[in-house]
Amino acid sequence: MEARAYLRNVRIAPRKVKVVCDLIRGKSAAEANAIMMNTPKAASELLVKLLKSAVANAENNHNMDPEKLYVAEVSVSPGPVLKRIRLRDHGRAFRILKRTSHITLVLKEKE
C-alpha cells in the first residue's frame, strides 16, 4: 500500500527542489521531516508541508501506521514556464524564464 501527495505549479525552479529531494529519498518520514526542518532551502518549507499531507493521507485514507512510513519516491518535474521580459538599453529586451515545478511524494509502509 502506498500514499501519495502532489504539489503542482509551485513557483520554484525544479533544480532547486531536486537538491532537497535527494536528501530525503529513502528515509523514514520522521527523519525526512527532521532533515528538512534543518535545511536552509526554500524548497524545504514546501516539502515539509507536502510530507505532512502525505502522512495524513496514509493515516486517514489507507489506515497506515505513521511510525512505519518511509519516503519511497519523491520526484520533481518541470511545470509551465512563465515568460517575462527585462528591458535593456538600446531598445533591447532580455527574456526571463520563471520556472515552476510539479512535485510528487510517495510514502510506503515498512514491513
UniProtKB/TrEMBL annotation:
It comes from the Bacteria. One of its GO terms (cellular component) is cytosolic large ribosomal subunit. GO terms for molecular function: rRNA binding; structural constituent of ribosome. Keywords: Ribonucleoprotein, Ribosomal protein, RNA-binding, rRNA-binding. InterPro entries: Ribosomal_uL22, Ribosomal_uL22_bac/chlpt-type, Ribosomal_uL22_bac/org-type, Ribosomal_uL22_sf. The keyword Nucleotide-binding does not apply. HAMAP family: Ribosomal_uL22_B. This protein binds specifically to 23S rRNA; its binding is stimulated by other ribosomal proteins, e.g. L4, L17, and L20. It is important during the early stages of 50S assembly. It makes multiple contacts with different domains of the 23S rRNA in the assembled 50S subunit and ribosome. The globular domain of the protein is located near the polypeptide exit tunnel on the outside of the subunit, while an extended beta-hairpin is found that lines the wall of the exit tunnel in the center of the 70S ribosome. Part of the 50S ribosomal subunit. Belongs to the universal ribosomal protein uL22 family. This is Large ribosomal subunit protein uL22. The lineage of its organism: Bacteria, Bacillati, Bacillota, Clostridia, Eubacteriales. The gene is rplV.
